[in-house]
Every structure is written in structure tokens, then in C-alpha cells.
Predict the structure.
Amino acid sequence: MEPRCRAGLEEACTCDDGAIGSRSCRTSGTMGTCSCEDDNNDSDTGANNTNNTNNTNNNNTNNTSGDTGSNDTGGGGDDTSHTTDDTGGGEDDTGVIEPGEYALGSIVLTARTGGDLVSATASAFFVPDASAAAAPSCALQIGGCWLSQYPDCPDGCEANEYCAFTAGCAGQCKRACDLSCANDEECYFPVANNPACRKTESFNAGNLNFTGTTEPLTLSPPYSFSNAGGGSLFTDASTITVRANGSTAAGFAGFEQSFTTTKHLQSSPSNVAIGLGTIFGEGPVEFNWEAGSDSVTLTAIVTSKLGRVGVLSCSANDASGGFSLPRSTIDAAIDDEELASLSFHLTRTRTETRSGLVTRGTLNNATVQPVGRLHLTSSSTESGTFLSCILGEDLCGDTCADLTTSRSHCGECSNNCVRGDNCGESKCFGPGACTSCRDDVTGRSGADCTSANQTCNNDPACTTYRTCLAACTTNICRSVCGNTAGPTAIQRYQAVETCVCKPTNCGHQCEC
């Protein structure tokens, strides 16, 4: 299995030569593949560096590092993501970021669509040392997608342990830091396997003030905003400026950065309206969107009827406007068990990276790198969930139906009961069904009731009695018919009705 890393935290990579973080992370969705070859093509040559040197308008006058970040795709992007060099000035470098060379900040604006409502979220985080920020994240490639793996410790772990991945994606039991600490403290391991409490320390950038958003927005630590159903915070390809006051203690110094947002992901017809027959059928599931030029990732969470869960992350070409999720990939994610549900998140992401930002202060519990990088991300997500038919229902096209009671699918898919009839016990019943069944069992050669019906037909008194009853709507009328028919005609008529009303004939259809 290839080494894996988490998007935006390139230095989580561990390569065969033992270098941690000296290689790049090629991102795919929320994870990426560690690239263990020197990537010297990232060197900034000429134009961008000239812009960095000559820009006098940037408020972050302390930026002196020349790290370009030109190949950093940020969170969730692939190699086509838009990244932008730091515009605060700096010297040229090779583009290779050595372990622990920078602190990391990430600011994310997200628009989420589910049906007709659009909700927005805004979040941010800042870490003092990117090389220490990411835990191993492992995945298996299946049919062009990545299937998230879960650590497996075959012998189980102790009560105070948990199963986690090693850097090589093997399962390993690790001691849980389960010591009860005060509200302003955190649990840590001063010595291996011996937990202790220490004061919690913060690392931030102070208040974040946004301009260019569709509504006023200020984020304060711990940087979280949401407006369920309140609309997006940005318009297509808009310019957003974020001004950070700077941390009063350890954290990023003040900065001002602008970035261009992505275009909202639009699908037509809506992916939420994909038919159940497609989702739970035998072919691929086709997703669509209006083509763009950023990065698109499909995350599919599939669950089997036995409870197995698979999480797939698939990178797509934004310009293609579509992605086909193979049925074989869905099946493999749940070990070929029957599919019970599928949830999807189709996300377009644009990330711009700024480097050369300045940090300040110190921490007792972590190293504060003097130079920082900042990911500025905007994304637009369409989400939906599809559930399989419940127990007792069958899938008929795109509809779940109870074949025992459905008028449109009575007994089998597409078997419609005629107007005025109903369905019960998987059979239609009512005037239409009764007439059809009666005609069959009395008129078809060799049918159960053919002989009795023919005997009645050959007796004028019996046919007169049958016609008389058919016109009656009251018991008094039926009594008059019987008084004029005579016992023989009545007996012959009743023989037909008794035969028709047998449960094996038309008893259900005619509600006898």
C-alpha cells in the first residue's frame, strides 16, 4: 500500500529514505498520496518572484520567506488546484519544504446544497508546526477511487488502548490518554504510556474579518460559523479579503490576504433526483455538474444491509462535467454485500496558498515555526442520501412497493389494478378483477366453473334470474327475483356462484 497523507499537511509523508515531510503530498479528496521523489520543479523562476519583490501594498510587511507553495494543492484539491504564491515579498527557493519549516493556517468557506436549500459554513485552524499536525491516514485504491481503511488489530487492544495506524498503515495498539484533567488542561504523555495533565495552550491568528462575503463575517477563535439554509457566503468567482488581527500570544501575526472563490457546483438534472433503480441497480451511478476549472471530488458512503460501511473518495475532472461511479467499486467497498444506502458529497474546491507569513510567541508544548503558510479554500458541495426499500417492499423501477398491497404493483412489478379495484394478498380485487376472473373460470374451456355456467346458460329461467339480480340494489328486489325464478333456476345459479367464489378461483377478486 502506498504511503498516505492528509490533504494540506504535506509533511505527514514518510518516505523510504526516512525523510518525514521532505516530499510532497499529491492530494485526492481528503487524502493524498505521498510522492517520494524530489520535486524540484516547484522552484519559483522569474515572474512570480518579481511580483513578490515589487508588491508594496501588502499589509504583512514582515513576510521575508520566499517559499512559493506553487504545488501545494491545499485541502481536497488535486494537481489542478489553483495556488498562488505569497504576495508579501520574499526570496526565491527550491519549493522543497523541509520538515518543521513552517506553521500552517487554513481558512475554509463552504456552501452546501441539499435539495433547494443552501447552507454556509466558515472555519479556520492554525497549527504551530505542520510536520507534527497529521496522523497517518490510509486508503486502498479501488477502480480509480480511494477506499478509506480502518486500523485492524487482530488480537484486540487493552481497555486503556485503541487501535491506530502506524506510518506504514499497519494496525497497532496505542495507549489512550484517558486521564481526567481540568477544563483548562489537556492529557498528554510526558513519558511513553504514562499520561499526565498540562495547561492547554492556544495558537491562533486573532479575529478574522472578512470583506467581499454576502453577509458580514467575523470569526473568533475557535473559528466556526454556520447558517443552516441561510445561503452561501460567496458568489461565483468573487474576491474575498480576510484580515487577521494577529494573535496576542503565540500564533500568526496580523495579515491581510485576498483570494478568488470557486464557482458553485450546479447539477442538471439534480444528482439528488437520481433514481433508486440506478442507485440500487446493476450499472454505474452517473453524477453530473456544470463543467468548471477547479477540483471536483466525489465522496460516497455506502452501507450494506449487514452493516458494513465503505467510504470512497474519487477525484474527478471538473472540465468533464461528469463522473461515473462503477458498480464494481461500490460492491468492493462493502465486500459484495447487498447495498442498503448510499450517501454522496460532490464537492468543487479551489485552494490558494500563501507563504512567508510571520508567526510570533512561543509555546511550552510545541515548537512555533517562525514562518507560516496559509491555505485559503472555498468549496461548494451537493449532498444527498438514498435508502433501499424497507423490509417487505420490492424495488419496481425507481419506486419501492409492497407487492401485497400496491395497486400499481400488485403481486409483481407493473401489474396495475384497474380503476376502482384495490390490491390485497398480492391480488387485485373489486368489480374489474371479479369480472375478469369470473369470465376466465366460467368461459375458458376446461375451467373449474365452465360446466356449471353452461348449465345455467342453457336454462332460460336461470339466465333471467341472473339478469334480474344484476339489476338489483336492495334485498327486497332480490327476493322478488327469487320468487319468480323457481327453485331449479336458483339452484343452478348458486352452483355457478359457489364455484366462482372458491378461494382457488375468484374468492379474493370477488370479495366473496
